[in-house]
Design brief:
Elements: H1 17-20, H2 23-38, H3 53-69, H4 75-81, H5 99-112, E1 116-122, H6 125-143, H7 145-155, H8 162-167, H9 172-181, H10 186-201, H11 204-217, E2 221-228, E3 232-237, E4 243-245, E5 258-266, H12 267-273, H13 279-287, H14 290-295, E6 306-326, E7 332-337, E8 349-365, E9 371-376, E10 394-397, E11 401-402, E12 405-406, H15 409-432, E13 438-441, H16 443-447, H17 459-469, E14 490-493, H18 499-520, H19 524-527, H20 537-550, H21 552-577, H22 580-589, H23 595-600, E15 609-615, H24 619-634, H25 640-647, H26 652-782, H27 789-794, H28 799-802
Antiparallel strand pairs: 1-15, 2-3, 2-10, 4-5, 5-6, 6-7, 6-8, 8-9, 11-12, 13-14
Length: about 800
């Protein structure tokens, strides 16, 4: 550890690397930085990179942030309205009108809503060759597509590659779109997934919102990308008010040779970061009041438990020297030597060298004679395509930087915001001086009035009657009969309302508000606060688009910071892959289901990537694309599936190119379908004629066959009729025979019955005769009267009667 008390210029860079690595060299660098940014600040101006020093920048940024929050100091307004410093007669609300905050929120929130996709494009030789071979293979299949199809049709041999067969590309334009939209190497997918994962782990969305707010408010934004063994790749927000950097006129700060920031570090954190500090040194640091010396102008407090530490990076160069020695066998052996190696010429070896950029990192307590750290930076960020260059860990952007001076959106409107605040205060002052309307009471006029009921018409009674009923009692003549000049004892007084002044102040307020809109480009259509009811929707959107154009540089600054952070992450992936702990952490954080990504991580550090952001289109761009899609759909130039694919493309240029390709392809397809329809119609007509002729022949044949079948049918019917007639005749003869047999049987049965009846009657007569003879014999024997056989026959119970 070294002690410094004097400020000095930057040390000589044309010295050996061993001298640059010494603590004394780093001490001189720290002294020079501290001298540029913190010397002579008591006078208000320093020799810092922006001509105002650290304190001036801090105060300027602090003031702009207060304006952006609507919390700017009000002393200037009090000085404007006071009379010789006297404000005793004013009772005003001094709270600033937060008009600037509205415009800041509109821009910041609008930029934060713009989403983007991070795209990684491998530019190393291996990836480039792989992409070239893939494109050449597909181009060959596209150019020789007709010949390959003919070979397949004639010989049945498939010559095209499986990928080309799957894609079905038919033109070089379709191939170009495929390479831009769909083709992505596995190493590029791995890199994109890795970048998104690291950004999510570091909560980069919150960091992006913070430096976006800085770009709008103070005109400059910054972020820092670092690496350590414990956390891997770390992305931090950097407050531009704490930045120190070398002079630059580049808005992207690409030509810096030193950059750093001032941080308030507690004593315990300081001991953790620099454990080599002894107790005596810590005691000395705590007693030294450097914190108060450097921050009293803007802090308003002094905390002896914290110290202000300057962390910085310094870019210089090293000479890499190599000794090429020729062995006895004729081979050459390369040995790395220090840059002081300069032997005399020799036939057995030669000296070659190159210069490369290097970074040194240092830390120093501001206002304290102790230097904390100076060392060659570990894990320097180098583009693989250019290993001679080195990148700073800090990424800074100021879109409106000119000769070291930063301009912001808020700095343009602070004067108008002050006038709006003064107008607001004047409006309060006018309103406070306004007097309500009163009445004039003529006491002499009341004295001449007699109500006639004994009631005194005094001033109180007159005012009550006036305010309650609006009526007034008066006399035109006095009691002496003279003209009464106070015949209207109560008259209303019209006081000055101050309406003209209020209207004038409101117009002034609107004027300065419009001036803010004019100088920022944030018109009413940007936030839709006061849309014109008579304006068409297209005009309103056009005005909003013009407003977006006015703040396009801020959006580009935000995208630049984001892309540089992603590039630094890409360049530091190799550091994480070189250590087992951080490598395992990366693998665990990625999707385990994407095995291809995990495999590509093994070789990720040998690839070089170009990072770009694909910004999602805004509403106006989407509307133009959707209009083109609707026109193509209504004209039948594309299908619904094509429209769905087009809406999923975030790049408007590529979407329009695909739209043109799909329209062309649909047109060709429709032409092919039309030709196929014509051929099919002609073939259908020929087939119809052929079918008609064949139908005629078939008709004649069918007619002859039908006639023959009819004749055969007739013969068969006649034969069937004759057979049926014979069958009927036979049936009739059989039936007649049966009837005759039945009649014969009936006749025979009748004869038999009759004969039987005759015989039965004969037997009855014989029996009756026998009975009668017996009775007659009995009558003769008994000598009874003669028997009347007729009467006996009629008598009941006799055999004759029973019969």
């Amino acid at each position: 550890m070294q002690i410094t008390t004097n400020y000095s210029a930057f040390p000589n860079q044309v010295v050996p690397a061993a001298e640059k690595a010494t603590f004394e060299y780093g001490l001189k660098v720290a002294q020079a930085i501290e001298g540029e940014w913190f010397r002579n600040y008591r006078g208000g101006l320093g020799s810092g990179a922006q001509g105002g020093g650290y304190a001036v920048n801090f105060n300027a940024y602090h003031t702009l942030r207060l304006y952006a929050r609507g919390e700017q100091p009000i002393q200037k307004y009090k000085d404007e309205l006071s009379i010789n410093g006297d404000l005793s007669y004013l009772n005003l609300d001094w709270q600033p009108v937060p008009i600037v905050a509205k415009f800041v929120d509109i821009v910041v929130n609008g930029m934060s809503q713009r989403h983007f996709d991070i795209k990684a494009f491998a530019v190393d030789p291996e990836s480039t060759n792989k992409r070239t071979r893939y494109a050449q293979e597909l181009m060959r299949d596209v150019e020789q597509r007709e010949m390959f199809e003919q070979l397949k049709n004639e010989l049945g041999v498939e010559v095209r590659s499986p990928e080309s067969k799957k894609l079905g590309l038919e033109s070089p334009e379709e191939l170009e779109l495929h390479l831009q939209l769909d083709f992505k190497q596995s190493v590029e997918i791995a890199e994109e997934e890795l970048i998104n994962n690291i950004l999510d782990k570091n909560k980069f969305d919150l960091i992006r919102r913070r430096f976006t707010y800085d770009l709008v408010t103070i005109g400059i934004g910054a972020a820092k990308t670092s690496w350590n063994k414990a956390e891997g790749i770390v992305v931090d927000y950097v407050d531009p008010a704490n930045l120190v950097y070398s002079y630059t006129a580049d808005p992207n700060f690409e030509d810096l040779y030193y950059v750093g920031e001032v941080k308030a570090v507690t004593l315990e954190d300081l001991k953790m970061q620099f454990p080599h500090l002894t107790d005596e040194e810590m005691e000395l640091i705590q007693q030294y009041r450097g914190n108060e010396e450097y921050l009293r102008n803007w802090s308003g407090r002094n905390d002896n438990n914290t110290v202000q530490v300057l962390y910085f990076e310094y870019k210089t160069y090293h000479d890499q020297v190599f000794k090429i020695k020729e062995t006895n066998t004729g081979l050459q052996k390369v040995l790395e030597k220090p840059d002081t190696f300069n032997p005399p010429e020799n036939d057995n070896f030669q000296r070659i060298s190159r210069s490369i950029e290097v970074l040194y990192s240092g830390a120093k307590i501001l206002g304290h004679p102790l230097m904390l750290e100076w060392q060659l930076a570990k894990n320097m960020t180098r583009p693989i395509a250019n290993t001679n260059k080195v990148r700073m860990n800090y990424t800074v952007c100021a879109p409106r930087l000119y000769k070291g001076r930063v301009q912001s959106l808020v700095s343009r409107v602070t004067g108008f915001a002050d006038m709006i605040q003064l107008t607001h205060l004047k409006l309060q002052q006018v309103m406070s001086r306004m007097v309500p309307d009163g009445v004039y009471l003529d006491m002499d006029g009341l004295a001449e009035v007699d109500l006639g009921n004994g009631t005194n018409y005094n001033p109180a009674e007159a005012l009550n009657m006036y305010f309650q009923t609006g009526s007034i009692v008066g006399r035109s003549m006095t009691q002496d009969g003279e003209m009464n000049h106070g015949k209207v004892p109560i008259q209303e007084l019209q006081s000055s309302s101050g309406g003209a002044k209020i209207q004038s102040l409101i117009q002034t307020y609107q004027y300065y508000l419009q001036m803010i809109r004019d100088v920022t480009g944030l018109n009413e259509a940007r936030d839709g606060s006061t849309p014109d009811k008579n304006a068409l929707v297209g005009i309103q959107k056009l005005a909003a688009a013009n407003s977006n154009t006015a703040t396009r540089h801020l959006l580009q600054g935000m995208l630049y910071l984001t892309s540089r952070v992603c590039e630094n992450i890409t360049l530091r992936v190799g550091d994480s892959l070189d250590y087992p702990f951080t490598k395992q952490a990366l693998q665990d954080s990625l999707s385990r289901y994407n095995t291809a990504t995990l495999e590509e991580l093994k070789n990720l550090n040998i690839h070089d990537f170009g990072i770009y952001l694909e910004l999602t289109p805004d509403e106006e761009e989407k509307q133009v694309l959707e209009q083109n899609i609707q026109i193509a759909l209504q004209g039948g130039q594309i299908d619904l599936e094509d429209a769905i694919d087009l809406r999923e493309i975030s790049n408007i240029k590529l979407a329009n190119q695909m739209l043109k390709q799909r329209r062309k392809k649909k047109q060709q397809k429709d032409q092919q379908i039309a030709q196929q329809n014509i051929q099919a119609q002609a073939q259908a007509n020929a087939e119809t004629a052929q079918k008609a002729a064949m139908a005629e022949v078939q008709k004649s044949q069918a007619l002859a066959e039908t006639t023959m079948q009819i004749e055969q049918g007739k013969a068969q019917l006649e034969l069937a009729r004759m057979e049926q007639a014979a069958q009927i005749t036979n049936q009739q003869m059989d039936q007649k025979f049966q009837y005759d047999m039945q009649l014969k049987q009936m006749d025979l049965q009748e004869i038999a019955t009759r004969e039987k009846f005759i015989e039965d009657r004969k037997d009855e007569r014989t029996r009756l005769e026998g009975t009668q003879q017996s009775q007659m014999i009995q009558q003769r024997d008994t000598r009874t009267p003669a028997i009347d056989f007729e009467a006996q026959a009629d008598a009941p119970g006799t055999p004759e009667s029973l019969e």
